[in-house]
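Model: Ready when you are.
Researcher: Fold this.
Model:
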Amino acid sequence: MKYFSYLNTAAEITGLYKGQQPFHLFIKDFFRQYKKYGSSDRKQITHLCYCYFRLGASFKNITVPEKILTALFLCSEQDNEMLARLKPGWNEKISLSVEEKCAFLDIPFETLHVFPCTDELSGDISKNDFILSHFTQPDVFLRIRPGYRQSVLHKLEQEHINFSLPAENCVALPSTTKIDSIIDINKEAVVQDYSSQLTGALLQLAKPMDLPVTIWDCCAASGGKSIMAKDILGNIDLTVSDVRESVLVNLKKRFAEAGIQHFTTLVTDLAAPPVNLVPGTFRLIIADVPCTGSGTWGRTPERLSFFDKKEINRYTHLQQKIVSSVMPYLETNGFFLYITCSVFKKENEDMAGFIRENFAAELVKMESIKGYTVKADTMFAAIFRKNM
């Protein structure tokens, strides 16, 4: 029966995967080597693998195929053909909540080991709600750019795309939605997680009367925060930097699509002070720093099984170096926006304390952005004003 074949293949793949690369790349390589699987087979097997990873270190006392079936049950919200064939009694309970499903299986939910290092979570994160969010694939979000709301919504409606509006210019879409051929990406709308969009409220706090605003997006990556700063603050004098030159090449392409023409790029490793910059230059520094990414593991659930707790301290030390390198380039009364997509206290509240204590920086606002309530990433953001 094909379902047993799917289970065994998914068990084989998860056994081969050792976490050295993102799983989506690993499984593409697997299917490239074994071309006997059709598109429907690949889709089914991939889904089973991701369900398996969503259980993290739970259910170590059962076989891998049994764990995959259990994961499929816990992660499904609608009737599932495989469960209907192999576990019809389970499929009848498919609409229950995860906690109710655990009770049905006689497994106390609190004994599951889904998320690692829960003792390290930021204080205002709801442990149970956050863990539960990992059983569901997060949505994809668009941020509609100024002037394009009507056209974007019209295009989505014309194509009968299922979407919701969690905020006026934010569109939530199912994770499988293909939008590149519908929306002019980067010009009309930017693919940007809802929680990431909410950091824009802190950018508003830095809006001055004098223009243009000098901004340094010091860990720019794909440039999403820079585009949002342009949309919110308007006339800006923008500098972007990253340690990877290839990333800045892609960023330039994205800026061209977004209509951002005037900016300065800098390839620099912020573990040491940058060169070719004048201290006190910038009104606003955005530091969306490298981190564990623990608030995004709903999208990459393999990380639940392969995370090493030592990474928390490694990233914290890197974050301290980056902040120490860039703060001298902030002007007096300028704003420093610190962002992570982590849920760990050491990367979040503790780093906010480090910034206040070491750089004469007044904390204006700090918050955990709880995306786990809306099928989005969970992030942390804090904005400071430099006093001297």
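Researcher: Now this one.
Model:
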Amino acid sequence: MCSGVLLLLDAGLTLAWQEPVSAFMAGREQTALQHELDGLDKQVDADKRSLAPLESLADAKGRLKQLARLQRRRDGDGDPVGRLKMPSIGRSYVVVEGTNLGDLRKGPGHYPRTPLPGEGGTVGVAGHRTTYGAPFRTVNKLKKGDQLEMDMPYGRFFYRVDRLQIVKPNALWVTNKRKRETLVLSACHPLYSAARRIIVFSTLVRSEAK
């Protein structure tokens, strides 16, 4: 009787918001990941020193690109990459490297075959909508003109939402390279189904070094 009531309660919470047990686990993972992310400052300082001889030859954009490449070489599956901020919907999460099941249990995952912010091209990030903290639960509420930010150990990158689009699960074209650097967010659609994907396309409008 008691277990039945708990199951119904869990199901109700999932429908209303998100699955509570995995949400708790994801919350703990996010806290640990933030500590790891904070610890990358020393590595970034070392990277900057290694680029010092090139400072007179490379502009700020070029240096950010080099720093991003150095980080991408180090990142392994499940490692913290940076923090994605979505202020218009009140969400902020540490992004990890990789999009397999284990990676996405920690938070949004960076598609390994796409560049990091600052490298140019299309940066791809996927996330759950109903389990493990449901980081992308309300991405459907993002609107054209909303700001997204990728706060990386080596710099901050600000994107402007261009459009939302519903596509098939095999629509690999969404991460194709475009004229300007693009951030693409991907999640299952509709809620509680993997029949489609909701894609948020946004264009880089500004970047700054830390």
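Researcher: Key takeaway?
Model: The first strand starts at residue 80 and ends at 86.
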